[in-house]
What does this fold into?
Amino acid sequence: MPDNINETNPIEHQNPFENPAADMDFLLEEVLEDEILPVIPLRGAVLFPGAMISFDLNKEQSLLALDDALEHNSNILLLTQKNAETEDPKIEDLYSVGVVTNILQALRMPSGGLARVISHGEGRAVIAEFTQSEPFIKAKIATLAEPANEENSKETEALLRLSRENFSDYVEMSGRVLSEAVHEISQCNVPGRAADIIGGHVSMKTEQLQSLLEERDGLIRLQKAVSFLTYELDLLKIQRGLYEKIKLNLDKNQRDYILREQLKAIHNELGDGDNVDDDLEVFREKMASAHLPEYVTQKLDKEIKRLKHSGGFAAEAFVLRDYIERVLDLPWHYKTKENMNLSHAEEVLEKDHYGLRKVKERVIEFLAVRQQTSALDAPIICLLGPPGVGKTSIAKSIARALNRKYVRMSLGGVRDEAEIRGHRKTYVGAMPGRMIDAMRQAGTLNPLILLDEIDKMTADFRGNPASALLEVLDSEQNVNFRDHYLELPFDLSDVLFICTANQLDGIPQPLIDRLEIIQLASYTEDEKIHIGMDFLLAKQLKKHGLRKNQLKFQNETYGALIRFYTREAGVRQLERAIAQICRKVVKILLTEEKKSVTVTPGNLETFMGNKKFRENKKNENAEVGICRGLAWTSVGGDTLSVEVNTMKGTGKFKLTGNIGKVMEESAHAAISYIRSRHEQLSIRKGFFKDTDIHIHIPEGATPKDGPSAGITMATAMVSALTDIPVSNQVAMTGEITIRGRVLPIGGLKEKILAAKNAGIQKVLLPWENESDLSEINQDVKEGLDLILVKTMDEVLSQALERV
It folds into this structure.
C-alpha cells in the first residue's frame, strides 16, 4: 500500500443527503451500528483493513476533516475515487465502500498547510447517507461485519496454500514487497484476511482492488485475489522473459558507444581527455613517410579503422594504439651501410682482442666473400667456450668492425616459447617477442644480434624456446619470420646472428645443425699475461683515475697473479684482481702521499691477501699405485691424482672421492681389462678373490665424472697389483674399453696446458686425437713430449718404471 496518497478537493454535491447505497441492500445485512465520520477521498489507491498506512494532507477541506476526527474518536473514512484523473470529484465519483481508519499519529508542518498522518485500517464500511459537504464531507456509515468463521474445508486449505505460494513467487520476482508480508500470509488461516493481505501488497487495477474490498464473503474474496495475483504473476514472468531477450539482443556497439561517451565525459571532466583523431593523423603521417610494404600498409589501415570506431578510452583502443605504434617503430626498409674494408676490420678486431684467431678469420672471410657477391647470407656463428674467454666482447668488436648496430639478447633461463615468438594480441598484456623487440631496438634490418648463453635455455609446459629459434636461425625460413603479436612476416635474413655457449650439451641437435660452431679454447698463461699487460691494466687504470706512472706491474707479477689467485679458463677473475689492486693503490696514494706504487711477486700478498691456490705440481718421486691424470673443468684444465691401495680381503672393489656414474663405469671397465690380461701383466692368478682394491681421487668435495680417466685408473691399479711404480714425469688422459683400447677425449688444449703448468714432461694422449693437436699453438706444446697411444699395452710401457 502506498505511503503517500494524493487527495482531491472537498466534495460538493447538490443532494448531499441522497443515499448512495440504495442499490446495495445486500451489503446492509448484518451491519453494525451506524456512525457519522469525516470523509477523505483517495486517488488511485484502495486501502484494506489491518494495514498500517501513511499519507500526507495538503488541502484545507482535508485538514479540517482531520481536525474534526482528532477532536472526536480519531476515526476517518477513506473512499477511493472512481477516476484518478478527476481533480474535483463529486459524490458520484466516489465508491460507496471504503475503510474506516484510526489515526495513530498526525504531525502538522510548521507552515500549517501540510499534515502527515499515520493510521491503521480498522474495517470495511458502506455509506448510508452523506450528512455534510461543507466545509468538509461527513457521512453516516454502516460498518460491515466479517461473516462468522467456519472450519476450513480441503478446498479452502488448498486455496490458502496456492495463495501463499503465488504470493511468495510474486514477492521474489517483483522485489517491491517486504518479507514481513510473506511471513504474515504464511501464518494466516482466514481466507478473507489472506485476500486483504494480497490486495494490500499486489499491484492491480483500481477496479480489481475495489471489487476485493466490496466482497464480504472471505472465500470468494480469496478466490478473486488468487485469480488477480496469478494474472499479475504471469505478467511478471513474461516481463522478465522479454527483458532477458532484449538484454541479449541489445546491440553491442550501441552499449559500447554509450559507455565510451560516458568515459569520454569523465576524462574531459578530469582534464585528461585524449583526442583520438590527432593520434590517427600522426599514424597516417608516419605510414606515408615510412614507405612500408603493401601488406603492412593494408594491415595498419585495418587496425586504424578499428581504433577510430572503438573510441579513445576502451580497453581495445589501448591495445590497438600500442600495436600500431610498435609496427611503425620497426625498420621495414632501413639498413646501415656495411663497412667492407678488410684492413679496417682486421685492425678493429686485433685492437680489441688478443688471440681468438678462428673467430677473426671467419669474419674476414665473410667480408671477403661479400665483396665478391651481395647474395651471400649472413652466417650464424656459435662461439663455444668456457666463461671469460671473450665470447660476448668479440661480438661487440665484430659489430663495430662491420659498422652494424649491436643488440644483445640474453637467453639464460628463458623457458617460454612466447619469449621468442611473442604473445597473441588476444591475451592481456600481450607484447612482441624478444626477436622483434631487438629489431625495433636496433632500428635497422641488418644489425648484429648476440644470442647470449643459448645453452642455458630450458623448456616447460609453455613450450620450448629452442624450437622457436629453429625458424629464426634458418636462413631459408627467417626471411618471413612471423611473430605471434605482429601477425606480419618480417625479414631477418640480413641479420648477423652470433650465439654464445659454454657447452653443446644443453643445445638441441636440430639447433646445432643450423649453427657454425667455432671453439674458443682456454687462454694459455702467456696469452693471459699479454691480455693483462695490453688490455686489462689500461682499462682498469682509466676506470680508477690512475696514470701509467702511478701504478706499475713487474712482468713476473702477472704470472703469480694468474697461478695463485685467478685459476680460470678466461680472464674475468684476472680483471677483477687487477681492479682490486687498483683500488688499494688509490687508497695508498691518497693516505700515504706516495707518487707511485710498484706491484711485484714479493708484495703481491699485500694487495691480494693469502694465496687462494697452491701450485698443482707433479709428484716428487715415482710411486706405486699413484698415477697423474688430466681433466677438463668449466674453468680450464687440471691434473688429477688417482691413488690405489690393495689389501687382503674377499675381492671387494671400492671407489671414493665424489665420483660420478660415468667415471665409476670406467673403473669397472679397467678392472675387467686387468682381470682378462692378468697373465700378460704378470699379476697373480685369483687376485680378484682374495684382494680388496680401493680407488680414491683426492679433493672429495669436488664432484668428478667423465670417461677420460679410464686409462689413468687402469694404470694405477696395474701399478698397485704388480708393485711397479708409475713415473712422476707422466700424465695421461683417455677412455678405456674392456679390451684395452684407448678412445679419444675432448678438451685437449686445456689438459695439455694443465700438464705443462704442473711440470709434466711426458703426456700420453689417444691416437685418435692426433688431428686435434694440429689446432693447438706450438707455444702450448713446446717443452712437452706428446705421445699418441692406441692400447693400454702402450700406455703401461710408457708409464711404468720397470727395472
